[in-house]
Write a structure and sequence with these properties.
The chain is α+β, with helices and mostly antiparallel strands and about 120 residues long. Helix content is about 25%, strand content about 45%. Strands 2-1-6-5-4-3 form a six-stranded mixed beta sheet.
Length: about 120
């Protein structure tokens, strides 16, 4: 998405390609990740690497960006995520802050399942 800073676009590219090393490379050394769906908060490359391993493991995730907003030098990215998890497809909102061309803070919020019920 052209509206996004390059490093955020890289995050979603690596996420969709299940590229763990690429994902880790977009974070600053002391970055904070808050994964509200997993009730997890991790800081620093070592903890983020473990979180990436767990969050990509066997779920075959695909993330489509549906809307982007910039507010106070941070980014709100609304997405639809599909994969091998019970709520798929689902809406997730990513709140991203940058520092020195790296992601310094990533806060992920589950915003509801889009699964059709019959």
């Amino acid at each position: 998405m052209s509206d996004l800073p390059h490093i955020i676009s890289e995050y979603f590219l690596h996420k969709n390609n299940h590229n763990k090393e690429g994902l880790l490379s977009v974070f600053s050394d002391d970055a904070l990740v808050i994964d509200r769906g997993e009730s997890k908060e991790v800081r620093g490359k070592e903890q983020i690497a473990a979180w990436i391993d767990k969050s990509l493991s066997g779920l075959n995730l695909d993330t489509e960006i549906s809307h982007v907003t910039e507010k106070d030098e941070s980014w709100v990215i609304e997405t639809i995520v599909s994969g091998d998890f019970s709520a798929s497809p689902a809406k997730f909102v990513y709140y991203v802050a940058l520092a020195e061309d790296k992601i310094s803070s990533l806060d992920i919020e589950f915003a509801g399942s889009l699964k059709k019920t019959s």
